[in-house]
Amino acid sequence: MRVAQVKEFGGPEVLVPAELADPVAGPDEVVVAVDHIDTLFVQTQIRAGAFGEYFDVAPPYVPGGAVAGTVTSTGAAVDAVAWAGRRVVAAVEPGSYASLAAVPADHLAPIPDGLGLREAAALVHDGVTALALLDLTALKAGETVLITGASGGMGTLLVQLARSMGARVVAVARGEEKLALVRELGAHEVIDAGSPDWPTQAREVLGEAGADVVLDGVGGELGVRAFPLTATGGRFSAHGAPTGGFAPVDPAEAARRTITLLGIPDVQLTPERRVALVTRALSEAAAGRLRPVIGAVFPLERAADAHAAIEGRGVVGKVLLSV
Questions:
Q1: CB 297 within 8 A of CB 158
Q2: Cβ(191)–Cβ(198) under 8 Å?
Q3: pLDDT of residue 94
Q4: Predicted local distance difference test score (pLDDT) of residue 156
Q5: What pLDDT score does 51 carry?
């Protein structure tokens, strides 16, 4: 099978095409002929050698993520009638940057009729995490939510989902193109993160009370500046780290203001929970209530270019690979 493999830690150029043996389905597995592959910013950081304390990978390795494709073979313990030939999505850790993937059958979610494989691939991680965060923060109709990184793959989904739940959505993104997108997706107010005084602008929009929920998908200094915009007694989720680290919020200050702090450890999901959430996301998309924003698609052989595009931050929405 064809893969994109990280030969050593470094820049995008270390991600190179390679050939590996085709996988064979184990007793409770299926083999998926991959059509589209999800990419995440964190994959570029791992490739560069970061987060070794969280991800146990060593070159050469094939990055792990998620795929959308068609089941081509099934293991002895798998119901072939139920799964053979089905269009499915699945998280694949490791080894998703590949033309074939062996996946446990209980990790699969069928793709509803009317939804494309490309769109489905864009929802496997970001749709799951977005729904998990909204469940975790218990966002309610009538509340105000501030979303940083709102023009990214997950941010665009959060904007749509929060709006559909009846929340007032204040979206933070950088530049006119991205601001126009999140406004189109349903944000009630938009704030340009490129402005040095964006927190002041956000405060004017939010009012003195602040946001009931802050969903920080950026981290670093921007996340730190977003934290004071959280209402007393509110919820702050530091789940994004494309800046190189999660927002380093002071727990004592959060406790003083009775703010509930949440982070990526709070959305570590069992396979069963992940399948349930991705099924919800796919159903919403198939019904036309959720639109994944796909900014660029690169062939598998150009995975290095995909990583360069992600790191360049010029792409609006998701970057995918096609096989």
A1: no
A2: yes
A3: 85
A4: 97
A5: 83
